[in-house]
């Protein structure tokens, strides 16, 4: 049962910061997060303006990040992120074993059904796409690996929530504005949808993100385990590659999910 929690405004970045701040560390993190969000080279002056700081404040910090290999300076003077953060995250990623386990089964699935599929997990209250396998066709639907999406509004996120412990699910929903802005009747209907997905063992959606899109999702892993994922077929209706009935692929999707869970040791 969901707690009757009144909608509360989400915390601001300032409110989430620790009580005992370290200015130099925060300054470096601000730069890294800004460059990650912008995904284009930014000069020292542009970074300073965007962060509300003086250019001189950033000079030594930018030099240090560049010397340590986190940033690279382009010919025009703009700074960009290198792959060092990505490499560090993969070195100790709790999902690395899951990715290794998913590679062969997902490729086999994509080749057999000739549709794209992706594997996702929950990450900081959002849906994180771990990996994507494209359909072996000229027209296909792809979801970028590493991208973040709403865990509340996407089918993959809903299937994950449906197969999460009730207390974890309720706490996440209580924190998310997408759920809190719903009316009481809409929340009841939403929870009923999750309950049906859990009972069915799959979820299906049409036109959820755009007209013509179809998703079919199944959970990966044991709902009682700490590692849970969702495997989703993403299809476009009306293309020469799309299947008329996506549910024809459900048994193969479920087998692929079971194979991934078995290989990863989370079945």
Automatic annotation (TrEMBL):
<keyword id="KW-0238">DNA-binding</keyword>
<dbReference type="InterPro" id="IPR029016">
    <property type="entry name" value="GAF-like_dom_sf"/>
</dbReference>
<feature type="domain" description="IclR-ED">
    <location>
        <begin position="84"/>
        <end position="266"/>
    </location>
</feature>
<dbReference type="InterPro" id="IPR050707">
    <property type="entry name" value="HTH_MetabolicPath_Reg"/>
</dbReference>
<dbReference type="Pfam" id="PF01614">
    <property type="entry name" value="IclR_C"/>
</dbReference>
<dbReference type="InterPro" id="IPR036388">
    <property type="entry name" value="WH-like_DNA-bd_sf"/>
</dbReference>
<keyword id="KW-0804">Transcription</keyword>
<dbReference type="InterPro" id="IPR036390">
    <property type="entry name" value="WH_DNA-bd_sf"/>
</dbReference>
<feature type="domain" description="HTH iclR-type">
    <location>
        <begin position="22"/>
        <end position="83"/>
    </location>
</feature>
<dbReference type="GO" id="GO:0003700">
    <property type="term" value="F:DNA-binding transcription factor activity"/>
</dbReference>
<dbReference type="GO" id="GO:0045892">
    <property type="term" value="P:negative regulation of DNA-templated transcription"/>
</dbReference>
<dbReference type="Pfam" id="PF09339">
    <property type="entry name" value="HTH_IclR"/>
</dbReference>
<keyword id="KW-0805">Transcription regulation</keyword>
<dbReference type="GO" id="GO:0003677">
    <property type="term" value="F:DNA binding"/>
</dbReference>
<dbReference type="InterPro" id="IPR005471">
    <property type="entry name" value="Tscrpt_reg_IclR_N"/>
</dbReference>
<protein>
    <submittedName>
        <fullName>Transcriptional regulator KdgR</fullName>
    </submittedName>
</protein>
<dbReference type="InterPro" id="IPR014757">
    <property type="entry name" value="Tscrpt_reg_IclR_C"/>
</dbReference>
